[in-house]
Amino acid sequence: MNQIRKFLKRFGQDILKRPWGIAVAEDNVFITDRELHALLQFNKKDYKLVKRTGNKGAGDGELDKPQGLCVDYNGDVYVADLNNHRVSIFSNALEFVNSLGTHQLHGPGDVKVTPTSIVVLDLSPNCVHFYSRGEHLINSCITIGEDGVVCVPSFFSLDIAGNILITDLYRNNIKILSPSGELIHTIGREGHRRGEFVYPYGISISALGTIYVISHNINFCLQAF
């Protein structure tokens, strides 16, 4: 992929302290901030702050080191609330709606939503949890053990087939797992050349199937596959 994207806008530098996750909806951009323990909403027209919600705490609507997030088809925002061991759900207007996984999750780091499931990457036991849209745990896919497939996961994404793509922070690659957790393919290795990674973090897949990965490398970089 040789197309160069034009830089459009820098925003949030006077508001954000430690931005971590980002999700783009039709009219808004949502960002989690680990230092502010907050979820922030910016509009896409001029990228001004619309609303902020969350303070450090464990009550409804409070957050403690929020990480990855996503927006579902109804506009609700799902936030992986790391230190509260749950996923917090907010409306498009950032009103608290519900939470899930309180008694099952240990260190949720990222979350994605499909038409049928809520999928959560749990960093502490290194599991991928699957919830039905009724928010009941229906399956759990272990991704690490003595001979674990994934060593230290950081973020993940889902392709149109339901396969799970996970960035492996310490093995410096991307693991592609089937919906049942079987290893299908590995992308990349440690290094600073094209197609190689040093501490890969964020990952996303476009509607056309292009995989975008952020990694440290030299001066940080975004790679596409």
UniProtKB/TrEMBL annotation:
Gene3D superfamilies: TolB, C-terminal domain. InterPro entries: 6-blade_b-propeller_TolB-like (IPR011042), NHL_repeat (IPR001258), TRIM-NHL_E3_ligases (IPR050952). One of its GO terms (biological process) is protein polyubiquitination. It comes from the Eukaryota. The keyword RNA-binding does not apply. One of its GO terms (molecular function) is zinc ion binding. PROSITE patterns: NHL. Keywords: Repeat. NHL repeats lie at residues 50-93. This is Uncharacterized protein. It comes from Oopsacas minuta.
